[in-house]
Amino acid sequence: MSVSRCVSLFSRLQRRISAQPVRCTALSCHVSPGSVFLHQPHQAGAVVCSRKVSSNSSSPKPPDTSLFVPVSLKTDTPVDGSVGAELTQPLDKSELLKIMNRFYKRKEMQKLAADHGLDARLFHQAFISFRKYVLEMTSLAAELHIILSDICYGAGHVDDIYPYFMRHAKQIFPMLDCMDDLRKISDLRLPANWYPEARAIQRKVVFHAGPTNSGKTYHAIQRFLSAKSGVYCGPLKLLAHEIFEKSNTAGVACDLVTGEERSFMDPEGRAAGHVACTIEMCSVTTPYEVAVIDEIQMIRDPSRGWAWTRALLGLCADEIHVCGESAAIDFIRELMYSTGEEVEVHNYQRLTPFSVLDQAVESLDNLRPGDCVVCFSKNDIYSISRQIEARGLECAVIYGSLPPGTKLSQAKKFNDPEDPCKILVATDAIGMGLNLSIKRIIFNSLIKPNTNDKGEKQMETISTSQALQIAGRAGRFSSKFKEGEVTTMYRDDLPILKEILSHSVDPIETAGLHPTAEQIEMFAYHLPDATLSNLVDIFVSLSQVDGVYFVCNIDDFKFLADMIQHIPLNLRSRYVFCTAPINKKQPFVCTSFLKFARQFSRDEPLTFDWVCRHVNWPVAPPKNIKDLVHLEAVHDVCDLYLWLSYRFMDMFPDTALVREIQKELDDIIQEGVRNITRLIRATDPAITDPLQTQASRRGRSGTASSNYLTSSKGQRGQRDSGEVSDGSLAGRLVKDGLLTPDLLRQLQREWSEQKPNPTNQRALDTEAHHNNNKGRRKKKK
Ligand SMILES: Nc1ncnc2c1ncn2[C@@H]1O[C@H](COP(=O)(O)OP(=O)(O)O)[C@@H](O)[C@H]1O
Ligand SMILES: [Mg+2]
């Protein structure tokens, strides 16, 4: 080799070492729409950037490096081939190993790497990867080969490896090179600035404060109806429906917008001046005269709180009427300091007083007309309603997973003075959104399964706020039960209930926030190889929030993201799919979600016929509880279809037809629930035997329901876990009872059918490419 070639080679290598990080080249082909995302007028965008100046001064928390998943590098032969070996001579592997291990032990190197973001964990991982790379590559890049050769022959120092090691580390951990950018994107410290339209006007905030059934919503709605335009934001579809109907009945044209439904009063689909919506769906860019935000205390809800924060800070209305517990007054005032808006408080007292009785009911023999027995598990609902029926009494049943039509028809049956059904058995689903003529609330238990901060299930005594919300349903203005009563089924529970109700509700101290699609897209732009689940994890770990805010629990989002990670989808579509509000406890809904995503990724529209085949439509009326639970899941699958149909209209084209079968299904479920005790009788004797339930109660120590629930969960775990007990996602799903072994096997069959073999890999790549383009087309629309 000529000297001039050597010189030119070295200068070229020099340039490459100091060149921009590799990710830049990778990015331009991976995320071509990235620049569009970056310049999208995301409300946060401009403000986030301008905020940086001040936020940089405070020292950010160190990142959780356990979330940094190394990127696997392609072991391409370097362009300069075996030039290094030509210049020097082949390297001795055992000598190389010694050098590498010497480098690893150098404290100075560890310190230097730490200063550049490699903590002990990352240093170790990067070193292992780098050593493997050096030892396994047939030919190394010339400059590295030369350095290593020099060290071998005593002409160089082991520390000379550092720049090459660091370059490798940044290739496998691309986040190291863009930590500042990632921190800027995930800075959630001034959420009020995300809503320029709202900040451009001076809003008046009116807080309607008081207990349940004190007329808070009523008064806010009076103002809504008298305004030229208004938006009602409620926590439930049922509540949005109620206001939609009330408003139209009062002659004020009002549209309805929920995740799964849009009803426009104008035959041509033009928006009316008024709209009733579920809170997640409210527009923060449409101007209104009056906005009503109901149940404001839900701003601290671990999963949905962000929607209240967004509505409160973002609604673009002259008057914002918030309704909720008095425990939120001070907090809302504090939040409004950041927007410079005053809060006017209207206090309300209960329209119908309720009292806590001194006697527990003790036996179902002592039930009276107007009683509502409150349980916290479906099993208890089945058991109690079966026992009530065995006493020759009729009862209505309401729990969360029933379709809205069924809930309303059960409520109607119970409220109807002419109907023989005088008892209601319900979960805390009655706490909001249904008008019920209840005289006496009877807590069958005071213990409710909850998910803690770590996402673990645990049994907890209900909070004062929860107890009040439920107890507040006793007594109804405009019914014959003007005065409500509250008690427990069991004597031991009564003093506990009194104690719970004697406390004041904990003041609300924090409000939820949620990363937006745009923020996650900006993350993906920097970390194109990370999975969506990993992206949101890194986002949350880096995010900075002010003390009054918290980042909402994103476990459900991650659960869905993991489930469809293997399906080729562009990031925006993947993100939208993962925000679908589905009940992950229903295996059939999860499988359907997966199938929808797969069909979507193949660019095959999900037609009505396809859906009918998938859910086996037409369905037979339920013969037992298992059938009923399945039909409830089918109803949810229709909801999922409808939800997606509003986000991907061309891929989910048959909204009207699916809505029709969903309505029919609601009727079938209504009929099933009307005969629920017959279904219970035809089911598992374990949940129908009153004696057994009583015995389990007797064996308890104040937590019978908890034991009952835990043991039934345990049994399910044992029954279902079968052979799948590994730590994989599938294993975990089965272990948690979220996926049955049968469904898992079905999924595995489908996955293996899907697994690409070398001949169809190209087809799959083409499909993925096609889908990416499709996503882009949609985005432009
Ligand atoms: N001033 C009023 N006149 C007629 N009905 C009212 C009045 N105030 C409340 N109600 C009725 O009482 C019930 C409870 O009122 P609501 O506003 O829902 O209570 P809250 O929102 O405080 O729980 C509703 O059915 C509502 O329509
Ligand atoms: Mg209300």
Automatic annotation (TrEMBL):
Chain residue ranges for the region called Disordered: 688-728, 745-781
UniProt-listed Enzyme Commission number(s): 3.6.4.13
Major place of residence: mitochondrion
Catalytic activity: ATP + H2O = ADP + phosphate + H(+)
Keywords assigned by UniProt, alphabetized: ATP-binding, Helicase, Hydrolase, Mitochondrion, Mitochondrion nucleoid, Nucleotide-binding, Transit peptide
Polar residues bias locations: 754-763
Protein name: ATP-dependent RNA helicase SUPV3L1, mitochondrial
Organism: Larimichthys crocea
